[in-house]
């Protein structure tokens, strides 16, 4: 039931996610969205329906804005890199997304390994969820330090456009 609520909310909130991103910005959306994951893990400490079901809806909404903001932020970083290195537009998007997903998968492996080790040493479920909640909130706090990357037109520094602008001003 909890996952049903989560994914139903995620689905419907995705309709509004880009508008929320436009208002709040990528950094705020990343931070808010990641905090909902920590809240969901924290709700699992007691694992009662009156807490889990509302948190399932909260994380569904948070996931929608988090993943929309993640895509926008990685794309903006890629575009900034292309412009600063004078690379062709779109030439580094795959590399940036591949790097993100590699780090994401490594963190999934590390998290699952940690939980497996904790269970192997007979650590209680409650303690495991407390540890994972702390890790979630510490990870979320790291998003405070990400840099703002302005949205730019990919054509603003294209050599052909610069030549055209020069002809107009001469």
Outline the structure in words.
This protein is mainly alpha-helical. It has a single domain (2-169), classed as Growth Hormone, Chain: A (Up-down Bundle). It has 6 helices and no strands. α2 runs antiparallel to α5 (125-141) and α3 runs antiparallel to α4.
Record the SSE blueprint:
Elements: H1 2-24, H2 26-43, H3 49-84, H4 93-120, H5 125-141, H6 159-169
Helix pairs in contact: 1-2, 1-3, 2-3, 2-5, 3-4
Q: Which structural class matches the secondary elements?
A: mainly alpha
User: Main β-sheet, in a few words?
Assistant: none
Count the domains.
1
CATH architecture: Up-down Bundle
Question: Hey, roughly how much beta strand do the residues contain?
Answer: under 5%
Instruction: Indicate the CATH class.
Output: Mainly Alpha
Report the mean per-residue pLDDT as an integer. 90
Q: How many angstroms separate the termini?
A: 67 Å
Helical fraction equals over 70%
